[in-house]
Task: structure prediction
Amino acid sequence: MLWSDPENEPPKELRDTQDMLRRLGVFMALAMVLAMIVIGVR
Result:
């Protein structure tokens, strides 16, 4: 690893996409839990 090496930082678009996918994953997990509760109540 040299001092002159560029930082291992993904481009902004990739970071935004990863952030969106992470939020989507959390949303999907919450939706699944909510669906399980609704199905369990019936």
Notes: The chain is about 70% helix and 0% strand. The chain has one domain: 11-41. Residues 11-41 form one domain. The two ends are 59 Å apart (CA to CA).
